[in-house]
Amino acid sequence: MRAAPSTQYKSREEILNIHEFQAKDIFAKYGMAVPPEKVAITPDEARTIAEELGTAVVVKAQVHVGGRGKAGGVKLAKTPQEAYEKAEQILGMDIKGLTVNQVLVAQAVDIAHEAYVGIIMDRQTKRAVFMVSAAGGIDIEEVARDTPEKIHKLAVDPFLGLLPNQARMLAFKLYVDPKIAGQAAKILTQLYNTFIESDASLAEINPLVTTSDGQLWAVDGKMNIDDNALFKHKDIEAMRDLEAEEPTEVEAREADLSFVKLEGEIGCVVNGAGLAMATMDMVNYYGGSPANFLDIGGSSNPDKVVAAMNIITSDPKVKAILFNIFGGITRCDDVANGIVTALRRIAEGPGGPLKLPIVIRLTGTNEEEGRRILQEVDLVATDTMADAVQQAIKLGNK
């Protein structure tokens, strides 16, 4: 049975994830109230921070993944010594495959009520969409699944922005008390300004906490920033945590490759994002599973092919490598030279010659020269995309 279209794969909108404490630093610059807090990388530092704050604190794992609280990565500490002990328990913890290397030690607040406030960039409406719910907190995913009527949405006109009456309307979806709703309307406007001016694809506060004295605090925050806009935000680019990212994606970015690691067994090297998505769809159609999205782009640079091969061969799940090259700006002979160079470098390495089967579809600019180069190392390019995909799946299953 044919798989669903390419929407099953991770969006090609590349994003920069930043940590909670970094998102809340940005929130504070836009006027939102966040609790006093500092980051610690050792239990001793956590104890010192708790002493400085002089109150009960919350010790929170800083990793790029949700569900930290349910995984035991968020703990309350009433004393500095407890902060030391909680940090000791959390640091080094594995949460959904990510190791906790730092914790946020934040002043605990008296929680009377929790709400959820978030903004995403919706591709269908091509607008920033607010999502708010009075049922916020760690179970917001369950709320969205089981009682979606409790989540209220608003698509914001990109020319008008969030209007004051819209902010008030959303605020009264969260709070009955006019004074608290007035605070919330201000925060919603501040969050929208943060989202737009930071070129974010997501910004959320969960929970937005009401304290017993009627004050609102952003006690947790999350932001994703569009990679394509980072040239305008050097301060946000500097927040990138390379240790928290997939190593192959870091290597690909440094090589100017568009790469997303997936869970399949067919390593794909393609030129052009659209062709790459079509290639992954066809791999699924014929019963295989793509190991990655990898677009070498339109440049005629053999070094990119070498980098692509290094990245793919580092994945132990890959059983076959599929090149699908349609030469326009990209020259087929340059890609062929890159393949030959990569195979030679791999053969000269500690692991010896590449043992994975390679299937190549090569057509377009300098196609004949590319085929001749490949034939010199006993590689043959197929004529059609369908043939190449089926061959790769067949060889990967041997």
Number of strands: 19
Distance between the termini: 22 Å
* Biggest beta sheet attributes: 7 strands, antiparallel
* Rg, alpha carbons: 25 Å
Helical residue percent?
25-40%
Average per-residue pLDDT, rounded, comes to: 90
With helices defined by DSSP (H or I, 4 residues minimum), what is the helix count? 13
Structural class: alpha+beta
Beta-strand content? 25-35%
Uncertain runs are: 1-13
C-alpha geometry: elongated
Describe the structure.
- Strands 1, 8, 9, 10, 11, 12 and 13 form a 7-stranded antiparallel beta sheet that branches.
- By secondary structure, this protein is an alpha+beta fold.
- Helix content is 36%, strand content 25%.
- Mean pLDDT is 90; it is low at 1-13.
- The chain contains 13 helices and 19 strands.
Task: Provide the fold topology.
Blueprint: E1 15-17, H1 20-29, E2 37-40, H2 43-53, E3 57-61, E4 74-77, H3 80-90, E5 94-95, E6 98-99, E7 103-107, E8 111-122, E9 127-133, H4 140-146, E10 152-156, H5 164-174, H6 178-197, E11 200-211, E12 216-218, E13 221-226, H7 234-237, H8 247-254, E14 258-261, E15 266-270, H9 273-285, E16 292-295, H10 302-313, E17 320-327, H11 332-348, E18 358-364, H12 367-375, E19 381-382, H13 385-396
Parallel strand pairs: 15-17, 17-18, 18-19
Antiparallel strand pairs: 1-13, 2-7, 3-4, 3-7, 5-6, 8-9, 8-11, 9-10, 11-12, 11-13, 14-16
Properties at a glance:
four-stranded antiparallel β-sheet, alpha+beta, single chain, disordered N terminus
